[in-house]
Amino acid sequence: MKHIINLHENINDTARNNSDCPRVVLPEEIFFIISIIGVLENLMVLLAVIKNKNLQSPMYFFICSLAISDMMGSLYKILENILIVFRNMGYLKPRGNFETTADDIMDSLFILSLLGSIFSLSVIAADRYFTIFHALQYHSIVTMRRAIVVLTVIWTGCTGGAITMVIFSHHVPTVITFTSLFPLMLVFILCLYVHMFLLARSHARKILTLPRANMKGAITLTILLGVFIFCWAPFVLHVLLMTFCPNNPYCACYMSLFQVNGMLIMCNAVIDPFIYAFRSPELREAFKKMIFCSRS
């Protein structure tokens, strides 16, 4: 994000020197390559669901929502690199109107990626809950129409939230709101997991009779959630430290890893499609057909 990067560049030099932690700088080519791979992989997920009718179910629509979120995070970095190239070549006026507008659009994509991921994972968790504990009524509860309505509401709200956060990005309440969504999602899913565990204990025999695919979906969600936390939590912590203790040498030491934290976010978009493919035989088969058909 432009606003975060600008704040990062303005961290007090004394705090950075006292921390004895040199700033870690990664080549922009690494970010660009990882982002390209992330866009292509998640685009494959979307195409696989669009082309295969057997994958056109609420569960895979929710997965597509997460894939779109990942793709936006990668697209943000690609556009940023292109903008930097044009600026270095002299085609763009530094800090001109066009660059400022483009930066705001890219920042919106970045925030939209995080918000989309948070709410997509939450709705996937809810879907897994209904799949396991309301298996007989699942198809009447989670219909395609309801899934589309839920996703429409989610993405409309996320888009409005992303634009609002960019406009008011320099205000502390905005930062608090931005960072609080991350733990709120974890609390929601954790509460859902605890409830599922308590229900599982009281319905042990019923759970054993469920199809293995239902339990496998819950495990897949756990893996996706773990990867998401690992990749995004360092950046969220960075934003909090930069807002509340920018001049502290210990905070400055952690913030020297800014680009490493950014690379973890890009890696999330690359890892997720592998998780889908590894955990879902149907999606893995769709990938094989797409790859081999394109080669032939």
From TrEMBL:
PANTHER family in UniProt: G-PROTEIN COUPLED RECEPTOR
Sequence ranges assigned to domain G-protein coupled receptors family 1 profile in this UniProt record: 41-276
Record's function text: Hormone receptor primarily expressed in adrenal cortex that plays a key role in regulating adrenocortical function. Upon corticotropin (ACTH) binding, facilitates the release of adrenal glucocorticoids, including cortisol and corticosterone. In addition, MC2R is required for fetal and neonatal adrenal gland development. Mechanistically, activates adenylate cyclase (cAMP), the MAPK cascade as well as the cAMP-dependent protein kinase A pathway leading to steroidogenic factor 1/NR5A1-mediated transcriptional activation.
Family statement: Belongs to the G-protein coupled receptor 1 family.
Subcellular location as annotated: Cell membrane
Alphabetical list of PROSITE patterns matching this protein: G_PROTEIN_RECEP_F1_1, G_PROTEIN_RECEP_F1_2
Membrane topology: Multi-pass membrane protein
Summary of subunit composition and partner proteins: Homodimer. Interacts with corticotropin (ACTH). Interacts with MRAP; this interaction targets MC2R to the plasma membrane. Interacts with MRAP2; competing with MRAP for binding to MC2R and impairing the binding of corticotropin (ACTH).
Main location per the UniProt record: membrane
Protein name: Adrenocorticotropic hormone receptor
Database matches in InterPro entries: ACTH_rcpt (IPR001168), GPCR_Rhodpsn (IPR000276), GPCR_Rhodpsn_7TM (IPR017452), Melcrt_ACTH_rcpt (IPR001671)
Biological classification of the source: Eukaryota, Metazoa, Chordata, Craniata, Vertebrata
Organism: Vulpes vulpes
